Request: fold
Amino acid sequence: MFDRGNFRSDLFNGIMASTVFPSLADVFTEAILTEDIFQSLDQVSSRAMSETMESVKGLNENDFLNQHVLSEEKAEVFFNLLKMDWEASDIDFWTGNIFSKISCFHDNGNESAQLPESADSSIQELTQPDDLMIPLMWPNVYGDQGGETLVVEYEIEVPPEETGEMIYANSPGSAGDISDFSSEPENDSSCGGSDGSSPMISYSKVEVKTEPGLDEQRQAAPYLPVQAILSPYEEEELEDYNDTVIRHKKRRKSDAEYIADGRKRPGRKKGQTSSVYHLWEFIRDLLHDPKQRIIKWENEQEGIFRVVKSSEVAKQWGNMKKNREKMTYEKLSRSLRYSRKEGYFEDVPKDEGYPKKLCFKFGPKSHGWKRL
DNA sequence: GGTTTATTTCCTGCTT
DNA sequence: GAAGCAGGAAATAAAC
Reply:
């Protein structure tokens, strides 16, 4: 299901990060949570610039390359600086104007460039964060055949001008969530309250022109390690290569091979999620249910939780997936370990007193578990 | 119908 | 010894 709140935060992270270091958007996205950004942005406007500048001293590229080094505090300071910069440029980032900035950025950084006049035939309707994130982060990957124009349709919640209040959409079904927008208006239209007392929903459509030539990007960013500039598929291929060295794993076709065959790579894009109800979503929703006693938080702020009744959790997961008695905790935990590899969960910190068994932590690809 | 994603199933070996 | 953890391998359903 479309998660509007996280779409917005990912969008924001991606845009901000793309402006500074295009290949680091994923690091920001993993490191910073929705509330950290939006709450801090509300507080920053009156803060002295010199004070902020002082506290951001010591940040370097390594901080941004290593999500474990990049503390939330530093991230907040950095984003505050960006916000000030954008405000100074008279850019209203709650509107579609932000996309003209991005479009210009991807047009070889030429600030005076204009949005493309019209979309080409490959119009796509993009509804997931990664649909936008990946073209923004890896403009060359999707432009191997000479560049293409993606049409991105999106909506952004505009806070009431007088109060600046913002409703945070968290998980589907939560307050502020408007998952059903089957009757989306066309370009740049708005709907919702206009009396300044309730948020407005702004619908927009923008074209993102992609550029060919990954080599050029590498040449343009020699300060970044090579690994940071690999395309998602190249990363896979590197993994495959490394695996092959070890145990002759079945090799996956490269993009170049598909293009040579004159066809598009089939299947989902890397990172593109389906509408399937995922294990991490099941666990998240279970944790949000105050009536249940089979799973509990160990540290909600950190996303660390503990399974109290393993067999019952497995049984409910089995019911959810309609295979009932066949599901066991052993199978569920195997799925959970695979999900951890994919980033939906991650290792529980050692030596911090958390139980060694039945204890897990949400990862960077999961969201909506933290109450705002 | 080929491919990818997100499991599911089964398994061995290890740790608590 | 039971329960849980780690991860390989193969199978599967759904999505694309």
